[in-house]
Write a structure and sequence with these properties.
- The complex is a heterodimer of chains A (112) and B (604).
- Chain A is 50% helix and 0% strand.
- In chain A, helix 1 crosses helix 2 and helix 1 crosses helix 4.
- The N and C termini of chain A lie far apart (48 Å).
- Chain A has a single domain, classed as Non-ribosomal Peptide Synthetase Peptidyl Carrier Protein, Chain A (Orthogonal Bundle), CATH 1.10.1200.
- By secondary structure, chain A is mainly α.
- Chain B has 604 residues and is of the alpha/beta class.
- Chain B has three domains: 180 residues, FAD/NAD(P)-binding domain; 142 residues, D-Amino Acid Oxidase, Chain A, domain 2 (2-Layer Sandwich); 205 residues, no CATH class.
- Chain B contains 20 helices and 20 strands.
- In chain B, the strands form four sheets. In chain B, strands 1, 2, 7, 8, 9, 10, 18 and 19 form an eight-stranded mixed β-sheet that branches.
- The longest helix of chain B is centred in the last third of the chain and has 42 residues.
- Chain B is globular, with a radius of gyration of 25 Å.
- The chains are: A mainly alpha (112), B alpha/beta (604).
- The interface between A and B is large, with 35 and 42 residues.
């Protein structure tokens, strides 16, 4: 898969999942500022990228990623690791909902 | 040792009629928890038992697995000798199309709280040796012919007032006196029939199942060249799941067994698929060719090692525990449905109640009110589970609606029923246990609404063969739903769990409102009014609030910030249907339809 093909896949995942206009998504777009995503969205992006890479992402690597271009590089590296048959990281203990998004409390439930 | 006298005096504190899974696990539990009790097990069959013997119920879920692994201390044995299960997995969508394109719903990682696939032949053979080594008297080749219950009041019944008569392998008749008699003889339901306690269950579903002597897994049905489908199975543990192939009016299970066999079964709703269309091996193959061609082709040259058909398999009972010192456990009491593998759960819960009551009795504190309380809990939860597992004919035809149902059913299961067992709530005093049941009644009422919303949504939904998403992870981590799974093993006192449940039932109410929102957006303006009319939205009592629907119509970022976490998590898992019409307008149309139906009713 070329970088261009990977970029197309990522743009499709982002636009489908987060109601973003594909034309707004560029390699230099930052996930949290330009695309206005949050920590829960980031978790979900990596869940979907597993389908592309066939590998469990390393959480330490994943949390450093800030831009679409870095996501492309991440997928490229993962595909190369899959090709080499590198061992996968063990499944990490999953975080609870509050640990993952401490601010995601919602307000419609309380009617405010 | 008290058990020594069983042979000599022909009496026992507990006589367990039936040494299958229910009877043997109860015997082991009594040795562990009530070591003073002399236990006699009477079992019709004799060793050696073959692998993959002719019994259904190989798949366990959290509660039943916790019972076997922790209550009975079998975790190391199960991990070594059976298969660590990777949750429940479902393949919906176009049943006649390419298998690899069918939407898949299931866990993406092995579960945090384990469950197991049991080879029943092997397990029961091993349990027989274990209970004998632990001091239980096990008589094989014993055919139970009669149970004479002392019907005296619980206070006056003398120990050993009941008698059990059985015929041994040589044909000689024996009578044993028993303080407690437990029927664990499965569907023969000796005590239930004798006491006239059987209740019909309105669940017109039937099943046929068979085993094959090789491993048959979903990956067999997808060409290796479909890389993305295989790549999705990151840990290589998809095959460990109980896989369900679902279609309108039926589902098919595939369960791997540690002895190399695979258990397969067809379950169908009588209204959609008559029992006669799958009740023999040839007909079952023809059924699969018609409805599940990929699996049928895989099985074409594979012999069935056995075959069993069971029409109208569900039955309930209003009493399986009695202060007169008898009990019916496992399938001798009631049987709900194979969907979700709840059989092992009810077996574990029932046995645990029996062990607690026998312990009370032998220490002189058997409280008839507590017997009735625990019995009522079993009846109410089995009735509620039956509601969950019946009436899903149309839902099976829509993968995304089925995934929404799983959200509700799993939340309900983990936050209430499973939590009850993991956190040992039967140990609460009677007043507090009443409070647990009261929460259970709120869940019952919510379940009626949730299932009606889901059924109506599915019945009105146009046939759509695409599932929208190839893979819907369930549970998705992290999420409000996954938190309920993780909370099962959190150390808490029963009192703390009771307090937690009171909060969770409110989240459950919010979840039901979310089902309404999902259904409305999915059905869209053309069907929203009809949905309100058919589901009688005005009478449900769980109409989404104004702030909730207003939030739904905000731009994405603002909406995510305004939505309650459960709404966002369901949307993350199930996707969001785009709609040109605002959710508030869809809800207004639905309420309009509901009101029109109500006034038409009152005019008539």
């Amino acid at each position: 898969m070329t970088r261009e093909e990977i970029l197309q896949e990522i743009v499709e995942i982002l636009s489908d999942s987060f109601e973003l206009d594909p034309k707004q998504i560029h390699p230099e777009s930052t996930l949290y500022e330009d695309l206005d995503l949050d920590s829960i969205d980031a978790v979900d992006i990596f869940v979907q990228l597993r389908d592309l890479t066939g590998r469990r992402p390393n959480p330490d690597v994943a949390k450093e990623i800030r831009t679409v271009d870095e996501l492309v590089t991440f997928v490229e590296d993962e595909l190369a690791a899959a090709e080499r048959g590198d061992p996968e990281p063990e499944p990490a203990a999953p975080p609870t909902r509050t640990e993952a998004a401490p601010d995601d409390t919602g307000s419609a439930a309380s009617g405010t | 040792m008290r058990s020594d006298r069983v042979g000599a005096r022909r009496q026992a504190d507990v006589v367990i009629c039936g040494g299958g899974l229910a009877g043997l696990t109860l015997a082991r539990q009594l040795r562990l928890e009530v070591p003073a009790a002399a236990v006699l097990v009477l079992e019709r069959t004799t060793r050696p038992l073959p692998d993959a013997c002719h019994k259904v119920g190989e798949s366990t879920i959290e509660l039943g697995a916790h019972y076997l692994a922790h209550t009975l201390g079998l975790e190391a044995y199960l991990r070594r000798e059976h298969i660590l299960k990777n949750g429940l997995r479902f393949f919906g969508g176009d049943t006649a199309g390419t298998f690899g394109e069918r939407p898949e719903i299931g866990p993406s990682e092995p579960p945090v709280i384990p469950a197991f696939q049991l080879d029943r032949g092997k397990l029961e053979r091993d349990l027989r040796a274990m209970v004998e080594a632990e001091g239980v008297t096990l008589v094989e080749g014993a055919m139970v012919e009669a149970v004479a219950l002392d019907e005296g009041s619980s206070g006056s019944a003398a120990p050993g007032a009941h008698t059990v008569t059985y015929r041994d392998a040589a044909g000689a008749s024996h009578t044993v006196a028993a303080r407690w008699v437990v029927d664990a003889m499965g569907r023969r339901r000796l005590l239930q029939k004798q006491l006239g306690l059987r209740r019909p269950a309105s669940n017109p579903q039937s099943a046929a199942w068979f085993r094959v002597a090789e491993r048959v897994v979903p990956a067999d049905l997808v060409a290796p060249s479909v890389r993305a489908w295989h790549a999705r199975d990151v840990g290589g543990s998809r095959w460990r799941s109980t896989s369900h192939l679902i279609g309108r009016g039926y589902w098919v299970w595939m369960i791997p067994l540690s002895t190399g066999f695979t258990s397969l079964g067809v379950v169908a709703d009588a209204a959609a698929h008559p029992f006669a269309s799958f009740n023999t091996p040839e007909r079952a193959r023809a059924f699969l060719r018609a409805h599940e061609p990929a699996l049928a082709a895989r099985l074409e040259d594979v012999a069935f090692a056995d075959f069993r058909a069971m029409p109208d398999y569900s039955y309930l009972s209003e009493r399986v525990l009695s202060a007169q010192r008898w009990a019916s456990v496992g399938e001798a009491g009631f049987f709900v449905d194979p969907l979700y593998s709840l059989g092992g759960d009810f077996l574990g819960l029932g046995n645990t109640f029996v062990a607690a009551l026998v312990a009370d009795d032998l220490s002189g504190h058997l409280d008839p009110a507590k017997v009735d309380e625990l019995n009522a809990f079993l009846y109410e939860t089995s009735r509620d589970a039956l509601r969950t597992t019946s009436g899903n004919s149309a839902i099976f035809a829509h993968a995304r609606i089925f995934a929404a149902k799983l959200w509700w059913d799993f939340f309900h299961y983990w936050s209430f029923f499973a939590a009850y067992f993991f956190q040992q709530l039967w140990k609460l005093d009677l007043r507090e246990h009443h409070a647990v049941r009261a929460i259970g009644h709120r869940y019952d009422a919510l379940n009626v609404v949730a299932q009606r919303v889901l059924e109506t949504w599915a019945e009105l939904s146009p046939e759509r063969l695409d599932g929208r998403r190839a893979f819907m992870p369930l549970p998705m981590f992290p999420s409000v739903l996954a938190d309920q799974h993780l909370a099962l093993t959190e150390p808490r006192t029963p009192e703390q769990t009771l307090a937690k449940m009171a909060g969770d039932v409110q989240t459950a109410e919010a979840l039901v409102r979310e089902l309404v929102v999902l259904a409305l957006r999915d059905l869209g303006p053309a069907l929203a009014r009809r949905f309100g009319e058919v589901a009688r939205l005005d009478t449900l009592g769980f109409v989404p609030s104004d702030p909730r629907v207003v939030a739904d119509d905000l731009p994405r970022r603002a909406r995510v910030e305004a939505l309650p976490p459960i709404a966002r998590d369901m949307e993350r898992a199930l996707g969001r249907t785009s709609s040109s019409v605002a959710t508030s307008a869809l809800l207004a149309a639905a309420l309009d339809g509901a009101r029109a139906a109500s006034s038409a009713d009152s005019a008539a």
